[in-house]
Design goal:
207 residues, Rossmann fold, six-stranded parallel beta sheet, 8 helices, 44% helix, globular, Flavin_trans-like, transmembrane helix, flavin prenyltransferase activity
Amino acid sequence: MAERKKRIVVGISGASGAVIGVRLLAALRRLGTHETHLIVSASGAVTAAQELDLARGDIDALADVVHNVRDIGAAVASGSFLSDGMVIAPCSMKTLAGVANGFADNLLTRAADVMLKERRRLVLVARETPLNLAHLRNMTLATEMGAIVMPPVPAFYAHPQTIDDIVDHTVGRVLDLFGIEHGEIARRWSGLGDEFASRGERKGASA
């Protein structure tokens, strides 16, 4: 029997931070470990155009398979379609609410619902601040059902120099959650002693 190709579903909703989903798709394509199935909400496409000046076709080109968010009969809408999990990056509070409360009114929330019912990995890169009580309760509900809520919080200990560094760290951490080896997309913590030692070496080299 042929070995099943690994698959991962990537969703992009309408929250700010479309670059996270786009960079995740690019990383997965470069790594070549998984077949990517993409679902972009209408608002997600608008946000990507505004924030990144990307047309919908530019985003679609990064995925192996593209699904229409309105196609509730797509393969990813069924638990019989095997995958290693799903990440929604970024995840708007509306999408979070749909996932947390089982309101699967489109393919994005239906695919997430499938991950929960099949006990597969579901990562929600929740993008909102500040948070109201409804947001917090929905995060709790989603977590209790098995999802991982992962706000894209900058890792200042890694001394990011650019926005790209911050985005890459988030992308690397998402890949970590799926057990996907990615090298050093996200700089790894090596301990305080090593950090101070390497900082001293850099200062010495620049003196």
